[in-house]
Amino acid sequence: SSWKLDKLTAKLPVPPGLPIIGNAMLFIGNTENILKNLENIASLAMRHEGAVKLWLGPKLYIAIGNAEDAQVVLENCLEKDSVYRFLRPWLGQGLFIAPLGLWKIHRRELLPVFHNKAVEEYLPIISEQADVLVKNLAEQSGKGEFDVLRYITACTLDIVFETSMGERMDVQHSPDTPYLRARHTVMTILNKRFFKVWLQPDLLFNLTPYAKQQKENIELTHKFTDDVVKNRRLQYETNQNKETNQQSGGRIKTVLEMLFGREVDFTDEQLREHIDSITIAGNDTTALVIAYTLILLGIHQDAQEKVFQEQQCIIQNSKRGATKEDLLCMNYLERVIKESMRLYTVVPIIARKVDKEIYLPHSKVTLPAGVGAVVGSFAIHRSVNEWGDNANEFDPDRFLPERSVDRHPAAFIPFSYGSRNCIGRYFGMIIIKSIISSIIRTYKIEANEVGPLKVEVLLFPIKGHQIKITKR
Ligand code: HEM
Questions:
Q1: Mean pLDDT (whole number) for 301-328
Q2: Which residues line ligand 1 (CB under 6 A)?
Q3: Where, by residue number, does heme bind (predicted)?
């Protein structure tokens, strides 16, 4: 039946491949090569109808580089592709990879927890950590280039841990803990598995030392979250009669606390899986967007000056954290952040399972059930068809309302699209805005370039996020 699948999708171009493994060669080699190959696939797609097909071993994938087909896939295919199965031992049925039936029920329960009003309660925690970040950065002020991502990641970890489970990790002061090391090890092994086809079959993976290492480190991270869930459940049950709404007693409720006593009676294991999924999906993504935006502001001094002037207008010379009202006024900064997410799409590819036949109106091809659909957000964000001839140039004002009216709704999808999009997108945006606001009011930034990129699930610059800062 691969013959039948091949025939059904005969209209689509296919890059040259090898027998048996098909196009899997495209994903072999270093991570920089993977990106080059992805770019070649994207340009092959552009020369045709914005889609190509790839055989990865026995499985057929359709790679999509146009907004119209991306919209159809992201609206209709809500089940994650089987490539995410490697996350299963770690994240179980957590929202990020939850199978469709369970996902529908749990997403509905989690939505109010990530509502604008609910996450705005976390602004004091965000500003407090942004303040620590600004102080930590002082050691780099007036010196040469340095990689800013490490500082930002420590800050977003502190924010995400405190808001999701009420744990004050203080990563910004003590970045090296057994839990964080274990977490990093698991991520490194998973990344290898995603991109190295020979590590994908369990049989082969289990022959490597990675298998044991992964198991031990997953157990360590599970134990950490299990303990938090157990303690918070106990506290919740003790206080149950006293507290009723989010801010009772003046204390802010964490994501975890908001999940107790809901319509769906989450088990402790389910809570652990959701909380782990949230801290994994929400941390590096947010940190990367901030780091790319700082480089872009360092390159484009005129944009930085405009961002600074806007801050002066809103918060004057104060060093206080940004309030909800302040954030709403940061329109230029918001356009800069969007342009940063467009050019450096930190989640560059999204893979979904096609569980029922669907027709792609742009490529004019019917995808049979059983194939995988890969949405190339990075490719769509840089496509001249969607963004015009200067698609590769930095121009925040392309996000002015009057210049956005004719754009396809799925031409800009940094948080994916449709009902399985990012549940934390508003939370992510307020963290990003608030942290950049604090940094830019204190430091002037310089940077040369982002340079060549690589894909390790997320998008990274090969030489790191190099910037120079000086106190204003
Ligand atoms: C700028 C920062 C962020 C970016 C670029 C981003 C991007 C994404 C994308 C592209 C997806 C969908 C993946 C797919 O369709 O397969 C997603 C899902 C998700 N994100 Fe985010 N995210 C960000 C911040 C956050 C934050 C702050 C949180 C929570 C604290 C979060 C939690 C999640 C969760 C739980 C999902 C799974 C949703 C579901 O399947 O229903 N993300 N994110």
A1: 96
A2: 95-96, 107, 160, 277-278, 281-282, 285-286, 289, 346-347, 350, 414-416, 420-424, 427-428
A3: 422
End-to-end alpha-carbon separation of the chain, Å? 65
Judge whether residue 168 has pLDDT over 60. yes
Which is nearest to 397 in space by CA: 314, 339, 345, 313? 339
- Assigned domain for 68 exists: no
User: Rounded to an integer, what distance in angstroms lies between the CA atom of residue 339 and that of residue 397?
Assistant: 8
Which domain range does residue 431 map to?
74-348+384-471
Whole-model pTM: value is: 0.93
Number of CB atoms found within 10 A of residue 301's CB:
13
CA distances from 154 to 151, 286, 288 (A): 5, 11, 12
Non-local CB neighbours of 30 within 8 Å, separated by 6+ positions: 454
Residues 6+ apart with CB under 8 A from 26: 15, 34, 37, 38, 41, 54
Q: Whose CA is nearest to atom 26 of ligand 1?
A: 282
* Ligand 1, pocket-test mutation among 90, 125, 163, 285, most atoms within 8 A of CB: 285
- The letter for the amino acid at 136 is N
Report the candidate in 116, 187, 108 with the shortest Cα–Cα distance to residue 420.
108
Alpha helices in 300-368 (DSSP H): 301-315, 324-329, 331-343
The CATH number of residue 445's host domain is: 1.10.630.10
Atom number in ligand 1 closest to CA 421:
12
Residue closest by Cα to atom 11 of ligand 1: 422
Q: What is the pLDDT of residues 4-31, one digit of tens each?
A: 777 777 777 777 665 555 566 555 556 6
Matching residue, tokens 């009202």: 325
Mutate to test the pocket of ligand 1, among 422, 423, 427, 460 (most ligand atoms within 8 A of CB): 422
Determine if residue 155 is labeled as part of a ligand binding site. Answer: no
Does any domain span residue 301?
A: yes
Number of domains in the chain: 1
Separation in Å, CA 421 to CA 210, 373, 405, 414: 32, 16, 21, 9
**Which of 171, 189, 167, 192 has the alpha carbon at shortest distance from 180?**
171
